[in-house]
Write a structure and sequence with these properties.
Layout lengths: L1 H17 L3 H12 L7 H8 L3 H13 L3 E4 L6 E4 L4 H13 L8
Antiparallel strand pairs: 1-2
Helix pairs in contact: 2-4, 2-5
Length: 106
């Protein structure tokens, strides 16, 4: 029983961390719009209108919990939603199926 509670707390912590700000939500939404696309901080800023410094901080959280993958093979670093993470994949599915992408948040 104790391990089920611990697992539940860690899942909740991960989701709280992933969706802990409107900035993280917008970044995840933009990356989930086209899961194959890799985006730079600049390109994320252009579509979300978030400040680059805030995007960097939010991406650090998202990479740490495994929802976003950083591709640093050549500068600049590019970011992509990590669909191998079940919760990131479910969020991407939810956004697509809910019609979220049919309305803009600008």
């Amino acid at each position: 029983m104790g391990s089920a509670i611990a697992e539940s707390v860690s899942v909740r912590d991960e989701i709280d961390e992933g969706l802990g700000s409107i900035g993280r939500f917008r970044i995840m939404a933009e990356l989930a719009r086209d899961p194959e696309r890799r985006m730079t901080i600049y390109s994320i800023a252009a579509v979300t209108r978030l400040k680059r410094v805030d995007i960097k901080a939010n991406l650090a959280h998202l990479v740490r919990i495994g929802w976003v993958r950083a591709h640093a093979s050549s500068p600049p670093v590019k970011y992509q939603v990590d669909l191998s993470n079940a919760r990131a994949a479910r969020l991407a599915d939810f956004l697509r199926s809910s019609g979220y992408f049919q309305s803009e948040y600008r």
